[in-house]
Amino acid sequence: INAEYMGIVLEELKRIIEASEILKEDDQNWPEPDRVGRQELEIVLGNEHISFNTTKIGSLIDVQNSQDPDGLRIFYYLVQDLKSLVFSLIGLHFKIKPI
């Protein structure tokens, strides 16, 4: 990413995180990591610093069967949104060719 676009990308990242309202969640009742795997997300946004840790989520059925389906659903969709952003940026990087 060119330096001129870095600020735009960071603002979009911040917007996605804030819109998800993940900072209001707590992973206390989420499934613990196990032999299947683990997912971790650490967010530092302004004065907020929070870490989330759960088992690998295979599908929404895993989310619905958890003790905190609402909170885990927010986490699940945020991770999907962040993956989409990253893959879009990677795709743009390889598609744009300078003339």
Task: Tell me what the structure shows.
It is a single chain. The protein is an alpha+beta fold. Helix content is 51%, strand content 16%. It has helices at residues 3-20, 60-64, 69-95; strands at 38-45, 48-55. A two-stranded antiparallel sheet has the order 1-2. A hairpin with a 2-residue loop joins strand 1 and strand 2. The radius of gyration is 16 Å and the shape is globular.
Any descriptors?
globular, single chain, 99 residues, two-stranded antiparallel ribbon, alpha+beta
Give a short synopsis of this structure.
The protein is an alpha+beta fold and 99 residues long.
Write the layout of secondary structure elements.
Elements: H1 3-20, E1 38-45, E2 48-55, H2 60-64, H3 69-95
Antiparallel strand pairs: 1-2
Helix pairs in contact: 1-3
Q: Report the structural category.
A: alpha+beta
Number of helices: 3
Segments where pLDDT lies below 50 for 5+ residues?
A: none
| H/E element sequence | HEEHH
**Strand order, largest beta sheet:** 1-2
Proportion of residues in extended strands: 15-25%
User: Measured on Cα atoms, how large is the radius of gyration?
Assistant: 16 Å
Main pleated-sheet profile = 2 strands, antiparallel
Task: State the end-to-end distance.
Answer: 17 Å
Q: What helical percentage do the residues reach?
A: 40-55%
Look at the structure and give the mean pLDDT: 90
Count of β-strands: 2
Shape: globular
